[in-house]
Amino acid sequence: MIPYQIKKDIKVLLLEDNTADADLIVRHLTKSGLSFSSKIVESRKGFEEALATFFPDIILSDYSLPSFDAVSAFKLIKERDLKIPFIIVSGTIGEENAVRLIKEGVTDYVSKNNFSSLLQKITRALKEAEELIEKENLLERLKTQTSALLIANQELEFQNAEKEKRAIELLNANKELLAFNFISSHDLQEPLRKIQVFISIMMDKEMKNMTEDGKNNLNRIHVAATRMRQLIEDLMDFSRVSAVDHQYEISDLQDIIDDVKTELIERIHQKETVFNIKGLAPVNIMTSQFRQLIYNLISNSLKFSLPKVPLQITIQSSILKNEEFRALNLPDSPQICDYWNFTFQDNGIGFDAQYNQNIFVIFQRLHHTAEYSGTGIGLAIVKKIVENHNGIIIADGNLNKGVTFNIYIPITENFKKLPETSKSGKQLFKVSNDLQNAYEMH
User: Fold this and answer.
1) Angle of helix 287-303 relative to helix 212-242, nearest 10 degrees?
2) Beta strands in 213-298 (DSSP E)
3) Which residues does the record list as 4-aspartylphosphate (modified residue) (predicted)?
């Protein structure tokens, strides 16, 4: 799963009358590495002016001020239907008031006595606000598309009325299914977020008064809620790659691999990973989806590596003539054309060959969560991305000897006839020539 990245220079509005406390919050966020600009207000008038001119991305508010308070400020936000995360930062709010305000819609709260979770809660709040906007935009697009579809349907005349009816029903059903999958997954996060907030409150305030059984049970709830959140996020990723955007472009796989390696650098160093990358020809793909594919494959290798054994990952690609591809006798290969072959191999724990097909089934896991974390969706996403490219993926596992993934993507005439000019300029022209040369050499 790709970690959420906060956009640069977010705007933080601080509703705080204590200058020392405001400075302490600003210093803490700066020290945490957050890139932001801030504005400090302490009255209703200042707060309203900041909403109108500063346009904050997030609001951090003290609970009680001499002439204003967090409850009144949050009421203003709700009345104006502003989708701005609202976090209370206070040392006097009390647990009961915090729980009540969260039930009323306040995003979260942080004690002034402990800022350690502030950056994490800001990150989570900004992510959820962004997803809410994305949800609303999706609904709006669906309304527009549905309206356009209805208008278009009125102009069409089919000879077979029953076939026309079924085609329309199928198209609408597919759109509604994707929308339902995304929206329901997103809406599941709201009650789960509250569960995690209440668990955090209990772990901060009540753990010392609990029996050992109580502590163990609370920790189990915390682990289960965290796993549920990961499952929902993975389902949303699966939903996104299920909608093919058809935005193909000439891509240099080395750049994509280097980008993924940078993101996973800590885990790569921890596993003493050695990469052997060779023969990577440029390829015409949906770049964002293929980046997700490579990220999932490398993450999978890191997760299922052998203990105390340096991880070795080999990545290479080649172009197979149609007769070479046919000689492989692979299933589901209808197109008569040449194929681009991408190979990914590691020396991890592998699996028994009888599970070569099972590992691509969504939610399919070969190991208990106590041994290896995960939701069983990562490789299902990989397979879906390959299918979006009209390709085939084959897994070849060997227990305790690693696994090899072979991906075959058809090279259609559109892939071969590369443009001499493009919006990307000389760089894409060079990559296009490289792909043309690689194809001709084979």
Assistant:
1) 150
2) 249-251, 274-278, 283-285
3) 62
Cα 127 to Cα 124: distance, rounded to the nearest angstrom: 5
**Mean pLDDT on 147-154:** 79
Residue 399 backbone class (left: φ over 0; alpha: ψ -120 to 50; beta: rest): beta
- What phi, psi does 87 have (nearest 5°)? -115, 130
Q: Which two tokens stand for residue 205?
A: 């305030």
CATH architecture of 10-120: 3-Layer(aba) Sandwich (3.40)
Two tokens, residue 414 = 């559109």
The answer to whether the 10-120 and 156-242 domains have the same CATH topology is no
- 235: Cβ–Cβ under 8 A, 6 or more apart, which residues? 181, 185, 377
User: If DSSP codes are grouped into helix, strand and coil, which group holds residue 156?
Assistant: coil
User: What does DSSP assign to residue 353?
Assistant: G
Among candidate residues 322, 327, 267, 323, the one with its CA nearest the CA of residue 295: 267
CA distance 442 to 435: 11
Task: Specify burial of residue 344 (Cβ count, 10 A radius: 0-12, 13-18, 19+).
Answer: buried
pLDDT, one tens digit per residue, over 385-439 is: 888 888 888 888 888 888 999 999 888 754 444 443 333 333 333 434 444 444 4
The residue among 67, 78, 103, 74 whose CA lies nearest residue 88 is 74
Going by C-alpha positions, the residue among 194, 164, 227, 225 that lies closest to residue 376 is 227
Q: How far apart are CA 394 and CA 299, in angstroms?
A: 18
Contact 392, 333 (CB under 8 A): yes
CATH class label, 249-441: alpha beta
Q: pTM of the full predicted structure?
A: 0.47
> Which run of H or E residues covers position 380?
helix 378-388
The residue extents of the domains of the chain are 10-120, 156-242, 249-441
What architecture does CATH give domain 156-242?
Answer: Orthogonal Bundle (1.10)
d(CA 285, CA 414): 12
CA distances 241 to 185, 296, 374, 413, Å, are: 15, 13, 19, 25
